[in-house]
Write a structure and sequence with these properties.
112 residues; mainly beta; Jelly Rolls; five-stranded antiparallel β-sheet; 49% strand
């Protein structure tokens, strides 16, 4: 079952109980013309391969520990840490422990 998107003015809680944390690997919290926010959950040892995003993004570690691989080297994130990445910057994610994180993407129109 898909998780419904939150609506303008609606509150949602991101602190998922640990027993339910990994039942949904990723879900979009909301998306509009300019912004998308999703919560992602990865089990220890799982990864997201290197990829790029058209717009700038932030990654906020909600729980656990994760490693972000960048061209400049690896960054380790812990609960409460926030990382900003410029548009089109290649990055990969590795869950050092079971982890939950929030990704915010500024949606830019593709350059023609």
């Amino acid at each position: 079952m898909a998780t419904p998107h939150i609506r303008s003015g609606e509150i949602t809680n991101l602190l998922t109980p640990e027993a339910q944390l990994m039942t949904l690997p990723a879900h979009a919290l909301f998306k509009d013309a300019h912004l998308e926010v999703m919560q992602m959950n990865l089990l220890k040892g799982k990864n997201l391969p290197s990829h790029r995003v058209n717009g700038p993004i932030t990654i906020q570690c909600l729980s656990g520990e994760m490693q972000i691989e960048l061209e400049a080297g690896a960054k380790v994130m812990h609960a409460g840490d926030l990382l900003y990445l410029a548009a089109d910057l290649p990055h990969a994610v590795l869950a050092v422990t079971d982890t939950s994180f929030l990704v915010t993407i500024v949606l830019l129109k593709p350059v023609a």
